[in-house]
Specification:
The protein has 158 residues and is an alpha+beta fold. It has four helices and five strands; from the N terminus they run αβββααββα. It has one domain: OB fold (Dihydrolipoamide Acetyltransferase, E2P). It is globular.
Length: 158
Amino acid sequence: MPTWPNSEYNDAPEPEGNGDRVPLPVGKYTCRIAHVRIDLNSKSDKPIIRFQLEAVDGEFRGCKGEKTVFLETLDNLRYFKADLHKLGMVLDNLSDIETRWQELVGLYVFTAVQLAKDGKSINVFFNKLMPPVPEYEAEVNPGGVPNDPAPTTPDYPF
C-alpha cells in the first residue's frame, strides 16, 4: 500500500473556481448519482459521504451538484439511513458502505436543492428513487460498463 501524503494534501490551498462544474440552482431535479466518495472529516476523523450528482433533464440538464453527508451526530446518521433506504439500500452496519457504495453509482433520484436557513448554503435532499433515463444513460455510459473507478478510501473505524 502506498504512503499517501495526506497532511500535505490537506494543507494545500483549494483551487479557485469550480472547474467545469456548473452548480445546480435551487429547485427540483431528476439527478443521476455520478460518483460516491468517502472522506474523513479532518477535524473529527468521522466519515463524510459525498454524492456527485448530474441533472439529467430540463433546463439544467448536465449541471452538477453535490450532496455532502457528515456522519457526526445521531441526526446525521438517521438522515443518511433514510437516504439510503430511499435509494433501495439497507446496510447491516454503516461500515458496509465501504464495499457497497458502487451500488449507488448510476442510480437516478428525484432531488430537491434548497437554500439553508442561514441563507448562504444549500441543502440537497433525496426525495425518491427514479427510473433510469435511457437517453442520458447512453451518453454517460455508452458501452453499458460502469465508468466510475473505485476511489481509495481511508482506513477508519466505524
